[in-house]
Structure prediction request, 487 residues.
Amino acid sequence: MLMVILSTIHCSLFTSCTSRPENPSKVGRLPEIYPDYAGVTIPAEIAPLNFNVRDSAEVVDVTVRGSKGGEMHAQGGFADFDIDDWHALTARNKGGELTFTVCTREGDGWKQYRDFKVYVSPHAMDAWGLTYRRIAPGYEVFSHMGLYQRDLSSFSETAILENTQVPGMCVNCHTAHRTDPSRFVFHVRGDHGATMVQMDGRREWLKASNDQLGGSMVYPYWHPSGKYCAFSTNQTRQGFHVVHDERIEVFDLKSDVFVYNPETHEIISDPLLETKDWNENSPVFSPDGRTLYYMTCRQQEYPAHFKDEKYNLCRIAFDPETASFGATVDTVFNAVKMGKSLTWPRPSYDGRWLLFTLADYGYFSIWHNESQQWLLDLRTGQARELTEVNSDKADSYHNWSANSRWIVFTSRRDDGLYSRLYLAQIDDRGRFTKPFLLPQRNPQEYYSESLYSFNTPDFTLLPVSFDANAAGREISSDRRVATKVRK
Prediction:
């Protein structure tokens, strides 16, 4: 405790004893800051955009002025803004812009860089925060991992469930109902594997696999009514590269798609979604609930021909009143004709757009540096690469905010090794703003010291309420709810 107090006093004295910059020499370039927040668009509710200055500097001094009024100041080892002052400034300048003036001191001299701007969107984030999985880059063992939630207005992160509750457990794919955490599902792999469905605080642990399905219930997506949840069932394998630029491949010996009714514990399938020579995967419902989109590819001889595994985007009609499927399957986007593979389709909740990722092959795009995000206009059927969002590293798993104005996605652009979370806004024409890295209080320290990758991110309207201790005991037990396939 004494060391913490002394450290705090030292920091306060350091800040108070450092004067404002006087007659700084002008530098004709932007400051080299981390993260690169220059020119980004943010929601007013976001946590402060704290940043480090990469130039050698003893002191960083930043003044932020709003185009609609207001000003704030920070000085210290990095730009560390007061949260309350930050939110007062961003709320006042909603729909306007913030101008950042950055000065650094080395010895007795100050330097002032060119100003940069950050734009404050008129559109709210429509979310309390984010949920995601954090996982160490290990393959043979699950190591320390878990599902976490983050308050987007601050830097507060809490665990939903960690695998320390049950040793050897792997937690996958936390999926809420249209970002509403009152209904969510995730899958647990390991000796006590199960699929957990929580609805209004009531938990059920489903048998991890069903003999009639031939695999586990994975890659879930809720029907807009909340009455159904679509899954795929996958016989997944992984392989390892011996070349330096590639690490791991994940492929399925077989996969099918079905819809689950949590009230009746019925699995609703169809011969069109469990074909013999094709793998169906990653189903998602349209916002009106009457279409089921999914990926499909021709089965290959694995692992010899894993690079021939290429997916297209298909759709089939779904009737929520009768819980039945249509009689035909349509191809929505033919990625195979482009020599590519489509993965992770995600329609916007307003029904206007559909995000997906293209890679050279397979569907685990998070391991493919060539992975690029694309946007399909569901009104016109036209698709385009998101050049304003993508990088030269793997850009992959994405989700929409409830108001369809913001996306969150994973990218390895920061260092090429770890996948991290980026956010961006979309306008009415389908153009995205410059993505920005999820803010942290001291970003350089946080991201350089973190040994974990972020994946499967999603927005959440409210904090997730989950009894992790009770869940750990339930996972360790063998009590499971059986599912049945509807004939």
